[in-house]
C-alpha cells in the first residue's frame, strides 16, 4: 500500500484540491484509493459539499466511538473511499492533533487499511507541525504543492529539509515524489519567474512536469462541492490534468521495467 503524503510548508496552496482530484484520478486509473483527511479544518468534507463536521471519521475512530470500517465513506467511484477528519470541536483541535500524533496511533490506523487499498492520500494541514511530521514518518511518498509565487519558492527548502530529516531519523524508505507547481499564472511575470527558477535550481526531476494553473474552475468546483470531474455533466478539460498527474505519479511510484515499457504496439491487426 502506497501512502502519499500531500504536504507543504505554506497554507492555501492547493493541498486539499490536489488530494481530492488526484485521489479520484488514482481510482479511475484502477487503484483502490482512500483520501484521508488529517486536517482538523475538515476541508475535504467542505470541498465535497458536506456541512461543517457533518460526519464521523478519524476523531471518532481515535476515541473508540466508531470502528474504522464504519466511517469509510463510499463514493460514486467504487474504487474511491474517503475518511473524513470527523467531528473535531474547533476548541479542541490541539487535543485532536495530540491524540493523532501520539505514539503509533496514525501508523496503527494506516496498518488497519493495508490490504484494503492500493493508495492512501493523506491531506495534511498547512505547515510543518506535528501532524505533517507524523504523516511523513508513516508515509511512503511525499508530494509537495508549491504555489507559483516568490514567497513559496523561498520557503521550499523548509519542507525539503524536514523530509530529509524524517528520512534520516525515522523513515528511510520515504521518497520525495515531487514538487508540483500550483496556481500558476502565465500572465504574471512573478509566477513565470518562479517556474523558471524551479526548473533551473532544482534539476533531477524533483519538479513535476504537470503544472496546475490558477483557474477559476477550481473555485467553481468547490462552490459546487465536487471534484472537477464531477462538477458538471461535461467535465472541464482541466480535470484531465489530474488523470495525467496520476499516471505520472504511478510511473514514479512503480517504474515500469524495460521489457514492460518498450516496443511499439501495432495499430493494424
Ligand atoms: N489552481 C487553483 N486555481 C485557483 N484556485 C485554486 C486552485 N487550487 C485551489 N484553489 C482554491 O484555493 C483555495 C485553497 O485551496 P486548498 O484548500 O486546496 O489549499 P490547501 O493547501 O489545502 O489549504 P490549507 O493549507 O488551508 O489546507 C480554495 O478555495 C481552492 O478552491
Ligand atoms: Mg487543505
Structure description:
The chain is α/β, with parallel strands linked by helices and 269 residues long. The protein has one domain (2-250): 3-Layer(aba) Sandwich (Rossmann fold), CATH 3.40.50.300. Helices cover 43% and strands 17% of the residues. It contains 13 helices and eight strands. The protein has helices at residues 15-28, 43-47, 58-63, 68-71, 93-100, 105-113, 130-138, 150-154, 156-169, 189-201, 216-224, 239-253, 258-261, and strands spanning 2-6, 33-37, 72-74, 80-83, 119-123, 141-147, 175-184, 207-213. An eight-stranded mixed β-sheet has the order 3-4-2-5-1-6-7-8, sandwiched between helices. It is globular and about 55 Å long. It starts with a strand and ends in an 8-residue tail after the last helix. The model has no long low-confidence stretch (mean pLDDT 93). This is Chromosome partitioning protein. Residues 1-175 form the AAA domain. It comes from Chondromyces crocatus.
Brief write-up:
This protein has 269 residues and is an alpha/beta fold. 43% of the residues lie in helices and 17% in strands.
Amino acid at each position: 500500500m502506497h501512502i502519499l503524503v500531500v504536504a507543504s510548508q505554506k497554507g492555501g496552496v492547493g493541498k486539499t484540491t490536489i488530494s481530492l482530484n488526484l485521489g479520484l484520478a488514482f481510482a479511475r486509473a484502477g487503484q483502490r484509493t482512500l483520501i484521508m483527511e488529517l486536517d482538523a479544518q475538515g476541508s475535504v468534507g467542505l470541498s465535497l459539499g458536506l456541512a461543517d463536521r457533518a460526519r464521523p471519521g478519524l476523531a471518532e475512530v481515535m476515541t473508540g466511538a466508531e470502528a474504522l470500517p464504519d466511517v469509510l465513506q463510499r463514493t460514486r467511484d467504487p474504487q474511491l473511499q474517503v475518511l473524513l477528519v470527523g467531528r473535531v470541536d474547533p476548541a479542541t483541535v490541539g487535543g485532536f492533533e495530540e491524540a493523532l500524533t501520539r505514539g503509533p496511533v496514525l501508523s496503527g490506523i494506516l496498518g488497519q487499511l493495508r490490504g484494503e487499498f492500493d493508495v492512501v492520500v493523506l491531506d495534511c494541514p498547512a505547515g510543518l507541525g506535528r501532524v505533517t511530521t507524523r504523516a511523513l514518518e508513516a508515509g511512503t511518498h511525499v508530494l509537495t504543492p508549491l504555489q507559483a509565487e516568490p514567497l513559496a519558492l523561498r520557503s521550499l527548502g523548509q519542507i525539503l529539509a524536514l523530509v530529509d530529516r524524517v528520512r534520516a531519523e525515522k523513515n528511510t524508505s520515504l521518497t520525495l515524489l515531487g514538487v508540483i507547481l500550483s496556481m500558476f499564472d502565465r500572465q504574471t511575470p512573478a509566477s513565470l519567474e518562479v517556474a523558471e527558477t524551479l526548473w533551473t535550481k532544482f534539476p533531477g526531476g524533483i519538479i513535476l512536469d504537470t503544472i496546475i494553473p490558477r483557474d477559476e474552475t477550481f473555485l467553481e468546483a468547490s462552490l459546487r462541492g465536487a471534484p472537477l470531474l464531477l462538477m458538471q455533466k461535461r467535465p472541464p478539460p482541466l480535470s484531465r490534468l489530474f488523470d495525467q498527474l496520476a499516471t505520472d505519479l504511478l510511473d514514479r511510484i512503480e517504474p515500469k521495467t524495460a521489457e514492460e515499457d518498450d516496443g511499439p504496439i501495432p495499430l493494424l491487426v
